[in-house]
Amino acid sequence: MPTTYARRRLLKALSGAAVGIAGMPQVLTAAEALETARVRIVNDGTLCIAPLFAAEELLRAEGFTDVQYPKIAAGAQVDEGLARGAADFSVFVPFEHMLALDMGAPITVLAGVHVGCFDCLHAKGFTKSPI
After folding, report:
1. CATH hierarchy code of domain 33-123
2. How confident is the model at residue 28 (pLDDT cuts 50, 70, 90)?
3. Torsion of CA 26, 7, 109, 116, to 10 degrees
4. Are the C-beta atoms of 64 and 70 separated by less than 8 Å?
5. Is 5 helix (H, G, I), strand (E, B) or coil?
6. Where in the chain is the domain with CATH 3.40.190.10?
Protein backbone atom coordinates (compact mmCIF):
# COMPACT_ATOMS: atom_id res chain seq x y z
CA MET A 1 0.00 0.00 0.00
CA PRO A 2 1.50 3.39 -0.96
CA THR A 3 2.40 5.87 1.75
CA THR A 4 0.46 9.11 1.65
CA TYR A 5 2.10 12.29 2.85
CA ALA A 6 0.60 15.43 4.23
CA ARG A 7 1.81 18.48 2.34
CA ARG A 8 4.04 19.67 5.19
CA ARG A 9 5.55 16.24 5.71
CA LEU A 10 6.26 15.96 1.98
CA LEU A 11 7.90 19.42 1.88
CA LYS A 12 10.01 18.53 4.90
CA ALA A 13 11.11 15.28 3.27
CA LEU A 14 11.95 17.03 -0.01
CA SER A 15 13.91 19.77 1.74
CA GLY A 16 15.80 17.12 3.70
CA ALA A 17 16.65 15.33 0.46
CA ALA A 18 17.85 18.60 -1.08
CA VAL A 19 20.14 19.16 1.91
CA GLY A 20 21.65 15.73 1.45
CA ILE A 21 22.17 16.14 -2.29
CA ALA A 22 23.23 19.76 -2.58
CA GLY A 23 24.57 20.44 0.90
CA MET A 24 22.18 23.37 1.28
CA PRO A 25 20.99 24.54 4.71
CA GLN A 26 17.85 22.76 5.86
CA VAL A 27 14.59 24.55 5.16
CA LEU A 28 12.44 24.94 8.23
CA THR A 29 8.84 23.88 7.82
CA ALA A 30 5.81 24.77 9.89
CA ALA A 31 5.17 22.86 13.09
CA GLU A 32 2.58 20.10 13.01
CA ALA A 33 0.06 22.08 15.07
CA LEU A 34 -0.85 25.64 14.07
CA GLU A 35 -0.51 28.43 16.62
CA THR A 36 -4.07 29.45 15.83
CA ALA A 37 -6.95 27.70 14.12
CA ARG A 38 -8.62 30.95 13.00
CA VAL A 39 -7.82 33.11 10.00
CA ARG A 40 -9.81 36.22 9.01
CA ILE A 41 -9.42 37.54 5.46
CA VAL A 42 -10.94 40.88 4.42
CA ASN A 43 -14.01 40.64 2.21
CA ASP A 44 -14.21 44.04 0.53
CA GLY A 45 -16.80 42.88 -1.99
CA THR A 46 -14.51 43.16 -5.01
CA LEU A 47 -13.85 40.49 -7.61
CA CYS A 48 -10.18 40.45 -6.59
CA ILE A 49 -10.94 38.33 -3.52
CA ALA A 50 -12.55 35.45 -5.41
CA PRO A 51 -9.36 33.33 -5.17
CA LEU A 52 -9.49 33.71 -1.38
CA PHE A 53 -12.87 32.00 -1.27
CA ALA A 54 -11.50 29.29 -3.53
CA ALA A 55 -8.51 28.88 -1.18
CA GLU A 56 -10.71 28.17 1.84
CA GLU A 57 -10.50 24.42 1.29
CA LEU A 58 -6.69 24.64 1.12
CA LEU A 59 -6.58 26.69 4.33
CA ARG A 60 -8.71 24.07 6.06
CA ALA A 61 -6.39 21.34 4.75
CA GLU A 62 -3.50 23.21 6.39
CA GLY A 63 -5.25 23.07 9.76
CA PHE A 64 -7.33 26.24 9.93
CA THR A 65 -10.71 25.20 11.30
CA ASP A 66 -12.23 28.68 11.52
CA VAL A 67 -11.94 30.59 8.22
CA GLN A 68 -13.78 33.92 8.27
CA TYR A 69 -14.30 36.70 5.71
CA PRO A 70 -15.29 39.87 7.63
CA LYS A 71 -16.86 42.51 5.39
CA ILE A 72 -14.71 45.64 5.35
CA ALA A 73 -15.12 48.31 2.66
CA ALA A 74 -12.23 48.81 0.25
CA GLY A 75 -9.96 51.78 0.79
CA ALA A 76 -8.74 53.23 4.08
CA GLN A 77 -11.24 51.03 5.93
CA VAL A 78 -9.08 47.99 5.10
CA ASP A 79 -6.09 49.51 6.92
CA GLU A 80 -8.31 50.50 9.84
CA GLY A 81 -9.77 47.00 10.03
CA LEU A 82 -6.33 45.38 9.97
CA ALA A 83 -4.97 47.84 12.56
CA ARG A 84 -7.81 47.25 15.03
CA GLY A 85 -7.65 43.47 14.62
CA ALA A 86 -10.92 42.96 12.73
CA ALA A 87 -9.04 40.89 10.12
CA ASP A 88 -5.69 39.17 9.78
CA PHE A 89 -5.02 39.44 6.03
CA SER A 90 -6.21 41.32 2.99
CA VAL A 91 -5.51 41.32 -0.72
CA PHE A 92 -4.83 44.95 -1.36
CA VAL A 93 -2.52 46.96 -3.60
CA PRO A 94 0.70 47.53 -1.59
CA PHE A 95 1.00 51.27 -2.23
CA GLU A 96 -2.50 51.72 -0.84
CA HIS A 97 -1.03 50.97 2.61
CA MET A 98 1.65 53.68 2.49
CA LEU A 99 -0.36 56.43 4.18
CA ALA A 100 -1.44 54.13 7.02
CA LEU A 101 2.13 52.90 7.48
CA ASP A 102 3.44 56.47 7.53
CA MET A 103 0.88 57.29 10.22
CA GLY A 104 2.16 54.38 12.32
CA ALA A 105 -0.62 51.83 11.77
CA PRO A 106 0.38 48.46 13.25
CA ILE A 107 0.13 46.54 9.97
CA THR A 108 2.66 44.57 7.96
CA VAL A 109 2.74 44.33 4.17
CA LEU A 110 3.88 40.83 3.22
CA ALA A 111 3.78 40.88 -0.58
CA GLY A 112 2.39 42.74 -3.52
CA VAL A 113 -0.67 41.59 -5.42
CA HIS A 114 -2.59 42.74 -8.46
CA VAL A 115 0.38 42.34 -10.78
CA GLY A 116 -1.94 40.98 -13.44
CA CYS A 117 -4.25 43.98 -13.11
CA PHE A 118 -1.39 46.42 -13.64
CA ASP A 119 0.01 44.37 -16.51
CA CYS A 120 -3.43 44.43 -18.14
CA LEU A 121 -3.67 48.22 -17.74
CA HIS A 122 -0.20 48.63 -19.23
CA ALA A 123 -1.16 46.41 -22.19
CA LYS A 124 -4.20 48.64 -22.80
CA GLY A 125 -1.98 51.70 -23.06
CA PHE A 126 -2.22 53.13 -19.54
CA THR A 127 1.20 54.49 -18.63
CA LYS A 128 0.28 56.20 -15.36
CA SER A 129 -1.03 54.66 -12.18
CA PRO A 130 -4.84 54.54 -12.21
CA ILE A 131 -4.80 55.77 -8.60
Report:
1. 3.40.190.10
2. very low
3. 120
4. no
5. coil
6. 33-123
